[in-house]
Automatic annotation (TrEMBL):
Listed name of the protein: tRNA-specific adenosine deaminase
Note accompanying the cofactor annotation: Binds 1 zinc ion per subunit.
Lineage: Bacteria, Bacillati, Bacillota, Bacilli, Bacillales
UniProt subunit comment: Homodimer.
InterPro entries (alphabetical): APOBEC/CMP_deaminase_Zn-bd, CMP_dCMP_dom, Cytidine_deaminase-like, MafB19-deam, tRNA_aden_deaminase
Species in which this protein is naturally found: Paenibacillus typhae
Binding site for Zn(2+): 118, 148, 151
HAMAP family: tRNA_aden_deaminase (MF_00972)
Enzyme Commission number: 3.5.4.33
Length: 219
């Protein structure tokens, strides 16, 4: 009798463990599929001339979509910290396609003495090599600071469907602050925009960097 009872208890324990493992496996699969979802499909009309503006703020997004954008923006922030470690202005970017990063970049203008070595440009070049194509279709670009005129132009030329940035640039921002080159209706391609994703974290990177720079003794 005791042996039968133990066997019954063991079966119940095994069944309970199986249910827990199965439940977490299902949750993992849902999360995995969510992150691999092609967000660009939500903005598939943004590249067609004459369509309505798809310039959005983070507060306009559903929570599940915002969570995805915040996840990838944290990767861009990690790239920005690499620039900071080199004494560069901390700006970082990543390009995502079907839930995978295919291009990374951080500001290298001072290090390389190259005025075009912005984070977005570095990431675009890397992504183009990964895809063996200059057309970055079905891709999203995440960058910690609003793109400048050069980078915004490169995004249009690369046919990027969607750009997500962290904090606005009041001095050179061309994704809605000073002008909006990404959604210029006279161009033959337009890029959707999502603003202010992890804005506080992205802004603090820049604020703290320039604060430390001002405190440095002048030689």
């Amino acid at each position: 009798m005791r042996s039968t009872a133990y066997t019954h208890i063991n079966r119940l324990l095994i069944l309970s463990v199986y249910k827990i493992v199965y439940k977490w496996a299902v949750i993992h699969r849902v999360i995995h599929n969510l992150f691999r979802a092609n967000i660009c499909s939500l903005y598939k009309d943004c590249s067609r001339k004459g369509k309505m503006s798809l310039n959005k703020y983070k507060d306009e997004l559903p929570p599940e979509e915002l969570a995805i954008h915040e996840f990838w923006m944290k990767e861009a922030i990690a790239e920005a910290r690499k620039a900071e470690s080199l004494g560069e202005v901390p700006i970082g970017a990543v390009i995502v396609r079907h839930g995978e990063i295919i291009g990374r970049g951080y500001n290298l203008r001072e290090t390389t003495l190259d005025s075009t070595a912005h984070a977005e440009m570095v990431a675009i070049r890397q992504a183009s090599i990964a895809l063996n194509s200059w057309r970055l279709l079905d891709c999203q670009l995440y960058v910690t600071l609003e793109p400048c005129p050069m980078c915004a132009g490169a995004m249009v030329q690369a046919r990027l469907p969607l750009t997500i940035y962290g904090t606005a640039d009041p001095k050179a921002g061309c994704a809605g602050t000073l002008m909006n080159l990404l959604e210029e209706p006279r161009f033959n391609h337009r890029t959707g925009i999502i603003q202010d994703v992890l804005r506080e974290e992205c802004a603090e990177l820049l604020t703290s960097f320039f604060r430390r720079l001002r405190r440095k003794p002048k030689l």
